[in-house]
Structures are given as structure tokens and as C-alpha cells.
Amino acid sequence: MTQTAETFGTTAAHDRRGDRIRRLSRLMSAGCLATSALLAAAMAIYWAVTPTHTLFSQAGIPHAPVTEIDPSTRALAFAIAMIPLGTLIWGLLSGRRCFDAFAAGRIFSRDSIRQLRAFAIAVAASALLKPLAAAALSVVLSLQQPAGPKTLALSMGSDTPLALIFAGTVAVIAWVMTEALEIADENNQFV
Question: In sequence order, which ranges of 50-70 are alpha helices (DSSP H)?
Fold first, then answer.
């Protein structure tokens, strides 16, 4: 059924919209949880099994050592790489809590808005931390070379400004939702 101005405000139309929001929110919640687990597992596998020459190449270090790096260096590199990724995972879990609130029908609640804002902050923080972690990784890995110059590789891809724009957009939406909630609370006091 096509929504028209006459049917949009009806109880049946409202119920259908609410059902769609709840279904999609449940899917998004599950997606946030699954993505968080997959990202953490993929990062652990990457640092555990990727050959040294590939690690060095992807870190922007031109010359890899002939021998594999030791497990303690891999563990340190994993810990450094997990700083921006852990921040993003925290954001995804905040997003999950927001979607759980939406699925429970609490769309304009302080908790759902707070979780949405936390998601935005985490995405922005992760985007800002990623180039810093990459620089730290280049130093840690280049210290494994027994001789020769050490490397500090700085890089920032197009994903960083895009993530910042996305995070800013979500933060503004959370801010607008907060304003709407405060206006609704104020109007309820007059009734």
C-alpha cells in the first residue's frame, strides 16, 4: 500500500512503520555484533599468520628482514593495530545498543540517543587513531631490522575523511534527536 497524506498518520500505518523499524533494527543490531566479532578475529588472524614481507610492505617499509618477526613483535603490533579497531568495535557495540533500543520501541529515548552519539564519537576517534597507529606500527616493525635505516611511515587514505563526515552526520542526527526529545518533554508539561 502506498503511503499518502491521508494514510500516513493512521494507526495501521504507524504500526507498519514501527514494525519495519523494529525488524530492521534487530537486523542492524545483529550486524553490529557479528561485524565486531569478525573484525577482531580477522585482525588476530592477520597478525598471527601474515608473512613478514607482507606486513612490512603494507606498513610502508621498503625492506623486510629475511627472517620472520618473532611472536612478541607480532603481539605488540596486534595491540597497536587494535587501538583504532577496538575503538571502532566499541562504537559498533554502542550502535548495537542503540538498535536494540529502537527494536524495543524506544526510538526517542535518552539512552538510544546517547548510544547513537557514542557510535558517532567512536567512528570519528577510530578514523583519527588509524593513521597514528599505522605510524607506530611502521616504527615497531622497522626496529626489527638488524641494520639499516628505521622507518616512520605516515599515511592517510580517503577512508579517514569519509569516516569523519559520516561520524559528524550521525552526531548531528543524535543532536537533533536530543532537541526533539526536549521539545516533546516540554510540550508534555503543558498537557
Answer: 52-58
Whether the Cβ atoms of residue 168 and residue 120 lie closer than 8 Å to each other: yes
Rounded CA separation 30/3 (Å): 29
Amino acid at position 148, single letter: G
State the DSSP string of 129-157: HHHHHHHHHHHHHHTTSSSS---------
Helix (H) or strand (E) holding 90: helix 71-103
Residues 138, 55: Cα–Cα separation, whole Å: 10
- Sequence-distant (6+) residues with CB within 8 A of 92 are 32, 33, 35, 36, 39, 119, 122
Q: Which whole number is the average pLDDT over 37-58?
A: 94
pLDDT in tens, 118-158: 999 999 999 999 999 999 998 998 887 766 667 777 788 89
Nearest to 46 by CA among 5, 38, 166: 38
How far apart, in Å, do the first and last CA atoms of the chain sit? 34
Angle (CA) 11-12-13 rounded to 5° is 90
Predicted pLDDT at 10: 67
